[in-house]
Amino acid sequence: MAEERLGASQVRARRNLRWIAVGVLAVCLGGLGAALLYGNLSNAHTVLVVKRTVYRDQVITAADLGATSAVPAAGVETVATERLDSVVGSTALSDLVEGSLLSPRSFGEPVVEAGSVRIGLRLAAGRLPSAPMPPGTEVLLVPVGRDGAEPPAGASVTGRIATAAAVLPDGASIVDVSVAATEAERVVRLAANEQLALVRLPGGPR
Questions:
Q1: Using an 8 Å Cβ cutoff, are 187 and 179 in contact?
Q2: Minimum mean pLDDT among 11-15, 65-69, 100-104: which range?
Q3: Are 195 and 137 a contacting pair, CB within 8 Å?
Q4: pLDDT-derived band of residue 103, with 50, 70 and 90 as boundaries?
Q5: Torsion-angle region of residue 18: left (phi > 0), alpha (psi -120 to 50) or beta?
Q6: What is the pLDDT of residue 80?
Q7: How far apart are CA 152 and CA 62, in angstroms?
Q8: 176 inside domain
Q9: Which of 78, 108, 175, 188 is the most exposed place for a label (fewest CB within 10 A)?
Q10: Which of residues 71, 89, 108 is at a domain's end?
């Protein structure tokens, strides 16, 4: 009987040692996890994040940006929230995707290609596609006649959407387009006389 009691006590001791070891391991892992979490939190920075997509060449507004706490990966550049005022009003140099961290290389002064100019056009309803045309979309500016008259002389002009079209209360749209500097004056005159239509060319951003 004594031997049986001794054997049982040894088994219980071994079991207790196992549970103690498990407990110690759990405490160590918990402490390690807490240390890692604390380290991440202490390295976190409040940075600017894109709240809604901004296309290339569009002006960035305060409503487009938000703040988030992040620990960027090595090599990932971010913009601190303290720089918000300098970002608002600048131009997106690349498409800024909703939910992404803002990069200091993705905004700045507007870029217009050498030999090109940017013009603003007001086009009546039906004179441009109703589907969205992101910046960078290639288009054709076509001279058209008014009230069934013959179209004005001159060939159509190729261009590129600079800022997405916005619809006005009267149904007309305003849109910024980049065209060759040599064609700018004629395109502006055609638009002012309501003798211009915009056609989307195949390919480009969708």
A1: yes
A2: 11-15
A3: no
A4: very high
A5: alpha
A6: 93
A7: 43
A8: yes
A9: 108
A10: 108
**CA 84/CA 143 separation, integer angstroms:** 43
Average pLDDT over residues 14-24: 57
Residue 37 lies in a domain: no
Is 127 found in the same domain as 60? no
pLDDT tens, position by position, 151-183: 888 899 999 998 889 999 999 999 999 999 999
Q: Is the CB of residue 34 less than 8 Å from the CB of residue 48? A: no
State whether 50 and 98 are in the same domain: yes
Q: pLDDT per residue over 20-39, tens digit each?
A: 655 655 555 555 554 444 44
Is 146 a domain residue? yes
How many domains, in total, are found in the chain? 2
Report, in angstroms and rounded to the nearest whole number, the Rg of the chain calculated over CA atoms. 32
pTM: 0.52
Other CB atoms within a 10 A radius of the CB of residue 163 amount to 23
CB 118 within 8 A of CB 177: yes
Distance, CA of 83 to CA of 107 (rounded, Å): 12
Q: Does the residue 15 lie in any domain? A: no
Phi, psi of 41 (to 5 degrees): -65, -40
**Residues spanned by the domain of 67:** 45-108
